[in-house]
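Q: I have 740 residues here and want to know how they pack in 3D. Can you give me a structure?
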Amino acid sequence: MSEPKTPTPAGDTYKGWVFKWTNYIKGYQRRWFVLSNGLLSYYRTQAEMGHTCRGTINLATATITVDDACNFVISNGGAQTYHLKASCEVERQRWITALELAKAKAACMQAESDDSGDDFSPSSPPVAHGQGGRTQNSEVQSALRTLGSKVEDLSTCNDLISKHGSALQRSLSELDSLRLTGEAGDKIRQVTERATLFRITSNAMINACRDFLALAQAHSKRWQKALQAERDQRVRLEETLEQLAKQHNNLERAFRGAAQANATADNKSSAGPGKGEASDEDDDNEFFDAMEEAPEFITVPADPHFHKSVIYPTYPFTLNEEPLVMNQESPSQELILLKKRRTRIPDKPNYSLNLWSIMKNCIGKELSKIPMPVNFNEPISMLQRLSEDLEYHELLDKASKCQSSLEQMCYVAAFSVSSYSTTVYRTGKPFNPLLGETYELDRRRESGYRSLCEQVSHHPPAAAHHAISDRGWTLRQEITVASKFRGKYLSIMPLGTIHAIFEKGNNHYTWKKVTTTVHNIIVGKLWIDQSGEIDVVNHTTGDRCHLKFAPYSYFSRDVARKVTGVVMDKDGKAHYVLSGTWDEKMEFSRVMQSSRGGENGTEGKQKTVYQTLKAREVWRRNPLPEGAETMYYFTALALTLNELEEGVAPTDSRRRPDQRLMEDGRWEEANSEKQRLEEKQRSVRREREREAASAPHDSYQALWFERCEDRITGEQIHIYKGGYWEAKDRGSWEGCPDIF
């Protein structure tokens, strides 16, 4: 059977072959695209439609641009971009028309669902599958009965019109047969003409009704059977999906058992995605067109005695290499009384809840639009989670004392990696902050820094963060989180730029975050992976560090969660090589010489070989507190984030009641309180929109941050404008909104 060459419309579904750009080696490859319900999905073949989707993009937030006669691009703001090529201009125009139509429908549907927010009513649990099926079935049967009754009424009227029309025509004919003269005869003829017109019109209507009745009677049973078949098919598909997920999990376990047996026989060890935790899929094999990439470079020791080894050394720093930190300041002799902070929180209750029953109807939606109970949260807000980036602030302290900008880059790059170490076991979702919610982290006495976060936007959710240290550095960022639920996994894409500025040398660094993926959403143990690339750029000197987070793969022999990077100056010369894992440690090695050598066996491409001095450990993850597995796997810093403190703003996350109830283990009350807070926020937003209608210039403005254009990136961001710490010293919070 020949395959269709042009896209085929089928109701609201549009499908066909399109060429998709994969990489510079393979170029454009033919893929089977399906457009349905505002989602554009693609597969390698039509046969894959039943089991393996290679990617999906939501058209509601996507942009569609045309490059030339046959090429067009679909992008959702940077997280996903499809470069597509049709076989001819006519086919491209068909796709563009279908995509624009689907985008308009999806945008309308999304606008209607915007007010759903993050609601969850504990008194209205999800309807059980069987009960929902019976309810839908009774509604359909009732509608069919009503339709049948109306059709019978129409048939009766048809018969009556026919009967009375014939009787009227006979009476008029009899009257016309009487020989009447004068005015009476004229009236009779006039009535006869009008009756004839009425008869013609009635006959036309009767014929149309007869055709409709015949058609309705012929097709009503067929429609009823079709509706029942569709409903039964949906039930079967849901049951099949759950069975497939369980079978997939069993196959994975069997495969890992066989792999471990082979590894034991060969005296080799391999690490899984979570050091023994279950993995849901091979990301490279299932979701990417390109094959797994070989390492971009090889490091070898500069000592000729070891020239045959390819290493990631762990032995200590030697005298031949200069230390990164210079001129350590002498410790102060002043004794400072520090506050004793808590080391435990109440244990997490063991409440069971079926995640699939809530999320199976939310595939392709934004995470912030999915109704979520607190059962899937952790008792901290997104603002507090953002403040956790400062867990390893010592790296910035050391970086501020470096004499060389290239050495400083090593510490900044390690700091950018360290923020992911807290996510290894943290599968809970932080609370979405309310608009105007703030969080302060004052560690000036203990660590020399203090930090402030504020939720500056609700749709899309965006948080601004500003931290300043007495030790010569400032950190600021504005992060918007885009997230998509794909059925088996959840992708979280942080959007925004992080800035680190050092007083010494006035070096200004920027970088972005990589994609976080939560696997095994349907069945199995949840585990987290980080993947993507980071460019840490020093805008003052032009130095750059390119970091690569390798996605987990069954077939990779590399250590899991691997991160590699190279520090280069503005001319592209390599000075340091970084390697390690984002969940354990990072090391750096100084490059003494670099050369082109070695080949990638799959493509024949040469790799760069760096001769390096012995590696030095630049960062290592702190061990988790005792009993962390019963406390949401919080780190020592995370355990203190929600601890009550005096003097904080009334909008501080520590004062949020639903979050506090959840931490105390009172989850049912927390769900009710969460619903109350979100309803209050929606009421305030509606009131603000009404006021904005009369005064369009009066839009929402953050309290402690102001919106402006960043001079480095050109982005519209919120920057701290000052005043918070002074207000705290005065104890004056008059300008704070009442959000709790």
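Q: Anything worth noting?
A: The first strand starts at residue 8 and ends at 10. The CA atoms of residues 519 and 527 lie 5 Å apart.
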